[in-house]
């Protein structure tokens, strides 16, 4: 069964003046349809202002579509009675870890969500321990979040979502503020959650390298989905990616440039291992 | 006219059990006209060092010298220093506050005691340098897109006409094209106007593509000060301190390990491409040579 079903959604930001008359309408999401299966790892790319964050906010009912419908785990996001259940099924992680951490001790922060939905205390502690282990932060459980690095804080924020036992996690540029090591930590954590706990992942990012491991990629522009496919398919089309203000991973770009210069490299190189391998065969 | 750091240390919570060095014995000369990349993982002391360069924090030990004068001296003109050493913080658009972009950019030079006309000319020129669209000058800064806000905010610092420009992750959160556009504009300030740029970045590829000198900080110490090719040849050491090298550096090193005779020093895509093509054309030339018995 589909974890997320999006059917022809449109979302408009409507600005009104003091009298309530419509001043301007900005269509941020323009007729998007897509399905995400349970257990998939999905990536969404798109330039600033392409509508990807607005789209993401539809996936756990922070926004509801102006037209069309979004179903998460079989629930319609526009029905108010579903909101709590939807937010338990689909958790969201944002860009800035400092805005998402409220506890003064790591384990208290992670326990905040389950406590709010009335989970018995013993069970909360179990969940806190399990989720901190799942993101590799268990040994930091007694520390103050202030003392953690950006990547560690972001993993604590993810643990806070994992403790809600969601079926799906949506992440809106979770690594934008992190150093290379922090970025790697977060990415590894997401893939581990996806493989071991079968959590569906929807990752929104500007870093092309982070998309390589995804099952499927959607590329947005002007509120629409312009490209979709496997990372290999998406990154084979260097020119279209560039025209959408995006990029491709360094190995794909180098392979593309070398091919243009006459080296007979195969199409669809994604990783640096693949490029090195292909060059060795050619040499 | 350089900035000189002479045995500079900064100690947090000195005299308490939590006492620790955020910076330890930094010695550095920053001459005019360079494009310098500053890298180091979170907590390595980058921000502390940057804030020291325009006197926002004073060293606990050692001296920061600007025009040969200790900036901690009581008679040193800090206001002048801050107009000459401009600082663009992370997410600078959060600091936009005026009702129009133009007024916002005028705020900095307006505080330098210049007459109104000069202030406005400087604001115009700064916005043009950042290629900010004319038709948006009198918009509220809050109605702009992320990339436009970022340009407006950087223009606000440029309008002070600094000789040194410090930028803390100016491309964080921007899409790849927006990132390249901002970096190109910044590179232009260095090439065309001879401004010194200090770019704090987590992106090794950005650093490799633009700077001519890299400073690496770790645990408050300046552990490396070198040109990009040399700096990234220490990629294994960089990884140990939470950093990395550009992707192409890894590709070149792996090719070398597999026996393809590339020089591993490439740090940008263009260098890597040229080097690989050179080796492959040599190889083909060799194949065409007649085989001699030796």
Give a quick rundown of the structure.
The complex is a heterodimer of chains A (283) and B (294). Chain A has 283 residues and is an alpha/beta fold.
Structural features, described:
Chain A contains ten helices and ten strands. Chain A is an alpha/beta fold and 283 residues long. Chain A has a single domain (2-231), classed as P-loop containing nucleotide triphosphate hydrolases (Rossmann fold). Chain A has a six-stranded mixed beta sheet with strand order 6-7-8-3-9-10. In chain A, strands 2-1-4-5 form a four-stranded antiparallel beta sheet. Chain A is globular and about 65 Å long. The termini of chain A are far apart. Chain B has eleven helices and ten strands. Among the domains of chain B are: 1-76 and 164-174 and 196-243, Rossmann fold (3-Layer(aba) Sandwich); 246-288, no CATH class. Chain B is 41% helix and 20% strand. In chain B, strand 9 (213-218) and strand 10 (221-226) form a beta hairpin. With 294 residues, chain B is an alpha/beta fold. Chain B has helices at residues 46-53, 78-84, 101-110, 116-129, 146-158, 176-193, 204-210, 228-233, 235-240, 247-257, 269-288, and strands spanning 3-12, 20-30, 35-39, 61-66, 69-70, 85-88, 164-168, 196-200, 213-218, 221-226. In chain B, helix 3 (101-110) runs parallel beside helix 5 (146-158) and helix 4 (116-129) crosses helix 5 (146-158). The longest helix of chain B has 20 residues, at 269-288. Chain B has a six-stranded mixed beta sheet with strand order 6-7-8-3-9-10, sandwiched between helices. In chain B, strands 2-1-4-5 form a four-stranded antiparallel beta sheet, covered by helices on one side. The chains are: A alpha/beta (283), B alpha/beta (294). Chain A binds chain B through residues 46-50, 95, 149-151, 173, 176-183, 206, 208-209, 242, 245-247, 249-251, 253-254, 257-258, 261, 263, 272-273, 275-276, 279-280, 282-283, and chain B through 41-43, 145-147, 172-179, 202, 204-205, 242-244, 246-248, 250-251, 254-255, 258-260, 269, 272-273, 276-277, 279-280, 283.
């Amino acid at each position: 069964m589909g974890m997320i079903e999006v059917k022809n959604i449109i979302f408009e930001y409507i600005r009104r003046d003091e009298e309530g008359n419509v001043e301007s309408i900005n269509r941020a999401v323009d007729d998007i349809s897509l399905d995400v299966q349970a257990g998939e790892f999905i990536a969404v790319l798109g330039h600033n202002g392409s509508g990807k964050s607005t789209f993401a906010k539809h996936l756990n009912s922070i926004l509801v579509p102006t037209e069309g419908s979004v179903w998460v785990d079989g629930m319609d996001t526009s029905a108010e009675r579903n909101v709590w259940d939807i937010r338990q099924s689909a958790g969201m992680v944002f860009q800035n870890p400092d805005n998402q951490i409220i506890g003064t001790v790591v384990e208290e922060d992670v326990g905040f969500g389950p406590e709010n939905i009335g989970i018995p205390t013993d069970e909360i502690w179990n969940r806190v321990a399990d989720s901190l282990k799942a993101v590799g932060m268990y040994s930091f459980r007694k520390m103050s979040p202030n003392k953690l690095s950006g990547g560690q804080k972001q993993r604590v924020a993810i643990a806070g979502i994992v403790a809600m036992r969601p079926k799906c996690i949506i992440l809106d540029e979770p690594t934008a503020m992190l150093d290379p090591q922090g970025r790697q930590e977060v990415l590894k954590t997401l893939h581990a959650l996806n493989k071991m706990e079968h959590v569906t992942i929807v990752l929104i990012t500007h870093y092309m390298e982070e998309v390589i491991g995804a099952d499927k990629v959607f590329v947005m522009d002007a509120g629409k989905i312009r490209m979709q496919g496997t990372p290999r398919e998406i990154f084979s089309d260097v020119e279209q990616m560039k025209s959408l203000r995006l990029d491709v991973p360094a190995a794909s770009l180098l392979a593309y440039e070398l091919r243009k210069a006459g080296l007979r490299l195969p199409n669809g190189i994604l990783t640096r291992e693949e490029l090195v391998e292909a060059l060795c065969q050619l040499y | 006219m350089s900035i000189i750091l002479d045995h500079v240390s900064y100690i947090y919570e000195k005299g308490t059990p939590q006492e620790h060095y955020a910076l330890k014995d930094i010695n550095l000369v920053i001459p005019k006209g360079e494009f310098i990349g500053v890298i180091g993982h979170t907590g390595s002391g980058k921000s502390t060092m940057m804030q020291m360069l325009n006197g926002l924090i004073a060293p606990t030990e050692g001296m920061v010298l600007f025009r040969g004068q200790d900036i901690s001296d009581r008679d040193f003109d800090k206001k002048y220093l801050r107009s000459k050493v401009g600082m663009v913080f992370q997410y600078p658009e959060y600091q936009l506050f005026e009702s129009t972009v133009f007024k916002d950019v005028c705020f900095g030079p307006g505080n330098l005691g210049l007459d109104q006309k000069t202030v406005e000319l400087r604001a115009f020129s700064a916005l043009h340098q950042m290629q900010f669209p004319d038709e948006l000058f009198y918009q509220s800064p809050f109605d702009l897109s992320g990339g436009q806000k970022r340009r407006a905010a950087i223009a606000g610092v440029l309008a002070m006409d600094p000789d040194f420009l410090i930028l803390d992750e100016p491309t964080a959160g921007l899409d790849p094209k927006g990132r390249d556009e901002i970096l190109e504009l910044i590179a232009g300030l260095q090439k065309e106007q001879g401004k010194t740029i200090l770019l704090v970045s987590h992106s090794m590829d950005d650093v490799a593509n633009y700077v001519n000198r890299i400073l690496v900080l770790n645990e408050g110490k300046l552990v490396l000060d070198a040109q990009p090719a040399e700096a990234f040849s220490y990629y294994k050491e960089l990884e140990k301190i939470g950093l990395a090298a550009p992707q192409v550096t890894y590709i070149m090193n792996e090719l070398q390990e597999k026996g393809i005779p590339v020089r591993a020093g490439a740090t940008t895509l263009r260098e890597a491409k040229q080097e690989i093509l050179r080796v492959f054309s040599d190889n083909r030339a060799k194949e065409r040579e007649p085989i001699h018995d030796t």
